[in-house]
């Protein structure tokens, strides 16, 4: 049977447009519901906002850039379910860390080049993501703490890292786990969320939350984590040069996380440098050959071809 041809650029663009249209319609409906609740039932509006925050976005599973199957094992998560771990190759370890609502296949484009450079590459699905079990909040819902704990579980099982490549909110997870003592020689932050405070503020603004409802959301998150929201910011972690040698990669037209956030981290950390792309957005940046080559060169210490 002949292989199925890849979708054309026109088909891919049409699908992307359809997804965006559906997302805009869903957001408008949610905003309308919250506007009513904030008037007639403010507490219910606050609970709804917290529930929405804890719900993963959908669609990431359609992007699988892995070169082929690796060795898969399951490890028990801290709070509930299992973490799914997949590895390829032999040599010093490089971890791939997905973001909120993502999965290990999204970072698959880094596997082949890193294996060819003599590394063992480990990617994993945190609870509620990819092939992992649901986390403590159930199907398609979770917390940042579960992402961080998943990395801790995998790192404790497999050992220190020659490098870590993380994407989106996975950069928050990876940076904090490393800052708390996990050994990593090199770090690559792709489309990082620099300020967790700003992230929550953008979320509240997108939903049209009033101050009272936004305060409920912030309070619930701080109660659940036992930390101030500002404690999860990335930029302060490396101002003293204590973080690993770091490459920050961010697209100027990223619609989900502004390029300025990655630039701020690169400016704040004395041992970080910024690579900016233009037109790759928040997701396609993970499969771009130039980005992959820059990340691999950074991790391996090899010059770019």
Give the N-to-C terminal Cα separation.
38 Å
Question: Which percent range fits the helix content?
Answer: 40-55%
**Which shape, going by the Cα principal axes?**
globular
Low-confidence stretches: none
In total, the number of strands is: 8
The rounded Rg comes to 19 Å
N-to-C SSE series?
A: HHEEEHEHEHEHHEHEH
Q: Classify the beta-strand content into a percent band.
A: 15-25%
In round numbers, the mean pLDDT is 87
Largest sheet: 8 strands, mixed
- The number of helical segments is 9
Q: Which structural class matches the secondary elements?
A: alpha/beta
Strand order of the biggest β-sheet: 1-2-4-3-5-6-7-8
Structural write-up:
Helices cover 41% and strands 17% of the residues. It has helices at 9-40, 42-53, 111-116, 144-158, 169-179, 196-207, 211-225, 259-268, 289-300, and strands at residues 71-76, 82-88, 93-97, 120-125, 161-167, 184-190, 245-251, 272-277. Helix 1 runs antiparallel to helix 2, helix 2 (42-53) crosses helix 7 and helix 4 (144-158) packs across helix 5. It starts with 8 loop residues before the first helix and ends in a 5-residue tail after the last helix.
Summarize it:
It contains nine helices and eight strands. With 305 residues, the chain is of the alpha/beta class.
């Amino acid at each position: 049977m002949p292989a199925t041809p890849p979708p054309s650029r026109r088909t891919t663009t049409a699908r992307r447009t359809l997804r965006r249209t559906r997302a805009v319609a869903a957001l408008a409906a949610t905003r309308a519901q919250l506007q009513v609740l904030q008037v007639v039932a403010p507490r219910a509006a606050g609970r709804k906002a917290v529930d929405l925050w804890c719900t993963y976005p959908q669609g990431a599973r359609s992007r699988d850039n892995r070169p082929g199957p690796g060795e898969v094992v399951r490890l028990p998560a801290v709070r509930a379910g299992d973490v799914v771990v997949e590895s390829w190759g032999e040599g010093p370890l490089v971890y791939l860390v997905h973001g909120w609502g993502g999965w290990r296949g999204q970072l698959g484009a880094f596997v082949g080049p890193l294996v060819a450079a003599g590394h063992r590459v480990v990617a994993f699905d945190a609870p509620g993501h990819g092939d992992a079990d649901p986390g403590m909040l159930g199907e398609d819902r979770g917390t940042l703490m579960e992402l961080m704990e998943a990395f801790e579980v995998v790192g404790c099982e497999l050992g220190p890292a020659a490098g870590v490549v993380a994407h989106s909110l996975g950069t928050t997870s990876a940076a904090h786990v490393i800052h708390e003592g996990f050994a990593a020689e090199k770090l690559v932050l792709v489309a990082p969320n620099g300020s967790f405070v700003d992230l929550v503020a953008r979320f509240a603004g997108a939903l049209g939350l009033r101050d009272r409802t936004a305060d409920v959301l912030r309070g619930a998150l701080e109660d659940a984590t036992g930390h101030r929201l500002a404690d999860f910011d990335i930029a302060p972690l490396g101002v003293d040069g204590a973080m690993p040698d770091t490459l920050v990669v961010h697209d100027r037209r990223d619609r989900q996380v502004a390029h300025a956030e990655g630039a701020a981290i690169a400016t704040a950390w004395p041992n970080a440098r910024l690579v900016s792309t233009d037109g790759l957005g928040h997701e396609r940046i993970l499969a771009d050959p130039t980005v992959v080559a820059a990340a691999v060169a950074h991790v391996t210490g090899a010059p770019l071809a």
